Amino acid sequence: MPEKEIIISIGWLLAGLAAGSVHVAALWINVQFLMRPGKRPVALVMLLGRFLLLGAVLFVAAWNGTAAFLWATCGVLVARPLVLRLMKDRVGPEVAMGEEGHLR
For residues 70 and 56, what is the distance between their CA atoms, to the nearest angstrom? Predict the structure, then answer.
């Protein structure tokens, strides 16, 4: 691959990582709003915004070609476990996986 194509591929990978990170990280805030009855309209708007942002990034990537779409999609897929691992460390051990009850 020529150097220009490598740089463009890395750019799409980073764009996918950024969009996927925002999408997954905003999920925590979204769930907090869904748990409060007065904040549910905000949660629905935020949910729609999360999906529109992710969809827009992937649409622009697909518009630029198959390789760009695949690199951006790989970025989104890699972002999810990374963000979840960081969020698990941030939340702390008091919230166990699969535990039912109120969220903070």
Answer: 15
Q: Which structure tokens are listed for 59? A: 């649409």
Q: Which residues contact 28 (CB under 8 A, 6 or more apart)?
A: 87
Nearest to 54 by CA among 23, 91, 88, 75: 23
Question: Full-prediction pTM beyond 0.85?
Answer: no
Residue 8 tokens, joined: 């463009």
> Token digits for 1?
């691959």
Long-range (24+ apart) CB contacts under 8 A made by 30-39 are 31/103, 32/103, 32/104, 35/102, 35/103
Phi, psi dihedral angles at 95 (to 5 degrees): -105, 105
Provide the token pair at 81. Answer: 């476990």
| CA 81 to mean position of chain CA atoms | 10
pLDDT category of residue 90 using cuts at 50, 70 and 90: confident
